[in-house]
Each structure stands twice: as C-alpha cells, then as structure tokens.
Amino acid sequence: MSDRLSDVLAHIDSDIDNSLERLFRLIEIQSISTDPAFAGACLQAAEWLADALKGVGFDAGVRPTPGHPMVVGHAKEGAGPHVLFYGHYDVQPVDPIDLWETDPFAPRIVTAADGSKQIVARGSSDDKGQLMTFIEACRAWKAVTGKLPIPVSILLEGEEESGGPSLVPFMKANKDELTADFAFVCDTGMWDKQTPAVTTMLRGLVGEEITITAAKRDLHSGMYGGAARNPIHVLVSILDGLRDENGRITLPGFYDGVGELPPAIKAQWDALGFDSAKFLGDVGLSIPAGEIDRSVLEKIWARPTCEVNGISGGYTGKGFKTVIPSQAFAKISFRLVDKQDPDKIRAAFRDYVRSKLPADCSVEFSPHGGSPGIRLPGDLPALVKTRQALTEEWGRDCVTIGSGGSIPVAGDFQSVLGMDALMVGFALDDDRIHSPNEKYDVSSYHGGIRSWARILAALSEKAQS
Ligand code: BES
Ligand code: ZN
After folding, report:
1. Domain Peptidase M20 dimerisation spans what residues (predicted)?
2. What span, in angstroms and rounded, lies between the C-alpha atoms of 408 and 245?
3. Res. 86: pLDDT tops 70
4. I need a labelling partner for 11 at 20 to 30 A (CA). Which of 18, 120, 281, 347 fits?
C-alpha cells in the first residue's frame, strides 16, 4: 500500500466521529420525495449536499428540474479514468410511524444484541449513509493530499424512491457534462457483514396502478347485494389470475427474453452458501412462495415476478359498513430480468385486465417506472480493480452478486450516456430499508468510506507505476 493511501485511511479512522456527525445532519432533513409536503425538505437536502461538496473542493451546485433538484459536482483532477458517482438523497415515507421506536429523523446510534453499532433513522442506509461514504472518502483524500487520485464527477438525485420523471431528461440535457468513463452507483449491499460485494445483476421494474369502476355510486349491500357487481371481487379475481398453481405468471409473453442462468454464474452463486431457511426465517416466514421449481436465491435475483403492493376499496375504517363500493384500486409491480421488455409487459398486463373485465365495468391505468433488468459483464477492467480494493479492505474475497431490487438509473447510464454502471454498496440485508427502524451499521459506514478511498487509489494511474 502506498504511504499516501495509508495516511488517508488513518485520517478516515481518526475523523470517523465527525463523518458520523455530518451524516446525521443530512439524515435530519426530511427529504421524502413522494409526498409534495416535503418538497422544501428535498431542496434543503440538495443544498446541504451541494455545500458539502463545495467544502470538499468540488465545483458543485443544485440543479433545478421540473421535480426535485439534482446535485452535480466535479473535481476533475488526478490521473486515471473519469468516474461519475451516483447516489440519491431522497428517502421513503416513514409510515407506519407507530412502529418506529424513536423519531425516524432523529438519528441515533444503537448497540445491537451482537455488540454491533447501528445508525437508526430513515435514510441511514438507503441512501444517505451510502452516498456519504463516497463524499467522506473524497474529503479524506483532499484533507491528506490536497487532491483526489482520479477525476470525479458526482450526480445526486432526489426522485429515486418515487420513480420520478426528471432523471432521464436531465441526463439527456446534460449529456456531455455527465458522461464519464463509467459510473459507480452506490445503492446496493454487501453479501454479509464481513464480505464485500459488487452487484452485476439487478432486476427491472414495471409499476401499474389500476382503478376498476362498477356502479356509478356506492350501494347498500343489502338492497343491491347479489345483483350489483362488486368491483373488489372483480379486482381480486383478476389479480388472482396473474399466477398459476405453479407460481408462474400467466401473462402471455411474460417469459419472453428470460434466459436460464449461465452455468458459471450459477456455480458462483452456489458457492455463496445462501441459507434460504434463515433468509425467510429472519422475517418470520418458512415456506418459499412463487415458482415451485426454483431456488430462493434464483427467485429473487434471476427470476421475474409480479407482486401486489397495495389494494384498497370499500369501507376500511373502524366499525362496519354494509356497502358495495363503486371503485376498487390496486398497485402492482413486476420485477423483470434479462431481456424482458418493460413496454411489452405493461401492454400485456393491460390487455389481460381488459380481457377479464365485465362489460359494465371500466378500468383506468396509471403507469409507474419502467426499467429493464441489468446484467454486467464480470470482467470489466474497472470492476476487477474495484473488487481487488474491496478484498483488501475487508480481508475477504469480494463476491459478485445479484439483487432483487431495481436501480433504474443503472440502465439509463447505459442507454442514455453509453457508460457502464458498477454497483458497489455497503448495505446489509437486515437494514430494514423502506421499513420502520431502518438502520446502517457503523461498520458499513466506516468500512464503506475506507473502501472508496482504496477504490479511488486503485483506479489511479499512479497505482500502476
Ligand atoms: N436501494 C434500493 C434498491 C435495492 C434494494 C438495491 C435492495 C439492492 C438491494 C432503491 O432505493 C429502491 O428501493 N428502488 C426501488 C425502485 C424505484 C423505481 C421505486 C425498488 O427497488 O423498489
Ligand atoms: Zn436506494
């Protein structure tokens, strides 16, 4: 290891309490992107980050969009590939708020049963803790050596969690400024607490909201029950028909473009020793759902699915009301893999719903998201160096994994800016992202900062000399 790098790592260790304090300041800003009531907080988070980047010597600013703003910064110094780092400063809503042990936006450090220290707060892991690992690594390089080892640009988004529409137009409008040799997307996890990972497979996403309308007003279920059509019944029957008895999705053409896992990747995944009983047991389940002939790991990383994310209609308040509602609603998402085409899946879903709809009902659709799955070649030179740096930091071989979640920007970097997105992150499966009491281990934060410091060094041309 070079003297410079070991000085930077020592600086990170001695400054970790300040790094945590800075993360806490960012977490305190309630940047919930999906709720318009928090638009001001989203702007505030963007301004905070632009200031933080300026403080680290970036030429940075808040860039307006029709939705929440972007933050863009550049520090084009050092020698080596130019990288674009991506993270998102927006967070998920906090509900159900009753299940939080303390205020979601008052970060605190909790000591878990196994002695590990955890930062508990909304956004601690997804994605404020993660994006700050990179900024803090840059801060340390600047503090110790006065410059970064390689040219770096940063793009921080505020609409990731709400599938906002601003990102692609912003990329297209700022193509030259944002195009680098490749991107790092820091929004994924490690294999486990000790084992670093790069994610090379990610599922895509198609979301649909549907509203089914039957009678033109709510009806008394005694006066009309049995004769008037109930849109909730129509809805659940349609939703139920989306899966067959073997757990396969029934939409015509749904599996077009879904390939079998290449044997080399299958062998790598088998070697990970994934414990499916523990995976399900940790969340209180014991019986795998979905396709009957697939392993749990394959189901979440390499197979497409369809899930109902929300359903409502009729009277759901306290007490009881005998009503046949006029309308029923559902939010449905499809996770896609391989070469499945998001537009075709959306069209197939709409055709299917219409084909099952009784003639005296109507349906309205509202689209959300629409991104294909991602598969990255494992032998990209930058990926090899990144894995090496991660292996050195954690003292364990960096593994290559898939992920069931979706990060549409990774595909957008490829299709709009023509660059690969390398996905490196330090979240853990039990971080409770999107759930009450979200947490980020201090070991993820501290190790993440140290990891980026090493990755920047490994990519610099000086590293080879
Ligand atoms: N960080 C997650 C994606 C993720 C989750 C990656 C778990 C790896 C492991 C991201 O913020 C997210 O939640 N994305 C949404 C997609 C978006 C379009 C709503 C998702 O996957 O549901
Ligand atoms: Zn995220």
Report:
1. 202-360
2. 31
3. yes
4. 120
